[in-house]
Design a protein that fits this description.
With 205 residues, the protein is an alpha+beta fold. It has two domains: 2-141, Sandwich (Immunoglobulin-like); 148-199. 33% of the residues lie in helices and 27% in strands. The strands form three sheets. It has a five-stranded antiparallel β-sheet with strand order 5-4-7-10-9. The chain has a three-stranded antiparallel β-sheet with strand order 2-3-6, with no helix packed on it. A two-stranded parallel sheet has the order 1-8. 20% of the residues are buried. The model is unreliable at 1-19 (pLDDT under 50).
Length: 205
């Protein structure tokens, strides 16, 4: 009899816990344009933040967008590559929620302050504690067939943009380093600083 009571209590506790669980549903797709927008539906409550990441290695493309769930739906602004249409091909889409603790507290009754109420195949455990939602899929731009010339042009433009950003960062870094050195009563060799900064630039393959 005592054993049966223990089993009943365990079962009851499980049922109570599951009654407060939130089974997450989420779907997403693109609008099929060359500057695609991502549309999706979910049962996550209003105010939940979603971070969308779009990636395609062939064209060195990576971009992100942050949106909020409203009325069970979400959508993004068009994704572009340097303000131009994306090269045709297959793109990877990943959608994640941030840690629940940094989201609007109005979402906590449904998902928990640490995401502990979230359940289902889309729910993952965070290395920082708590749960988060992760959804992955792919979508097609154009015919889905890659264009080698467009991919090469996109890679070259991305390399150029990265180089320009790095050079600008070197200049900004020198300004900051010079101010620190001056405050410490030291001098800073601008040529040596830029030489080391340029040498440290990551090289895109």
């Amino acid at each position: 009899m005592a054993k049966q009571k223990i089993l009943f209590i365990a079962l009851f506790a499980s049922l109570v816990t599951n009654s407060h669980a939130f089974i997450v549903n989420l779907t997403a797709t693109s609008d099929g344009q060359e500057k695609p927008r991502i549309f999706g539906t979910t049962n996550l409550p209003d105010g939940v933040d979603l971070m969308l990441s779009v990636h395609r290695s062939e064209s060195h493309y990576f971009a992100q967008a942050k949106v909020k769930v409203l009325g069970g739906k979400f959508n993004t602004q068009p994704f572009t590559q340097n303000s131009t249409p994306l090269p045709p091909g297959v793109y990877k889409l990943q959608i994640e929620t941030p840690m629940a603790g940094i989201m609007d507290s109005k979402t906590w009754p449904a998902i928990g302050s640490k995401g502990e109420k979230l359940e289902g195949p889309l729910v993952k455990n965070s290395n920082f504690g708590g749960n988060f939602v992760e959804f992955k899929t792919t979508f097609i731009v154009g015919t889905g067939l890659p264009s080698t010339p467009k991919d090469e042009a996109a890679r070259e433009q991305e390399k150029k943009n990265s180089h320009e950003w790095w050079m600008h960062s070197c200049q900004s870094g020198y300004t900051i380093a010079q101010a620190i050195a001056k405050n410490q009563g030291k001098s800073l060799d601008i040529e040596e600083f830029h030489k080391k900064c340029i040498a440290a630039e990551p090289r895109n393959k």
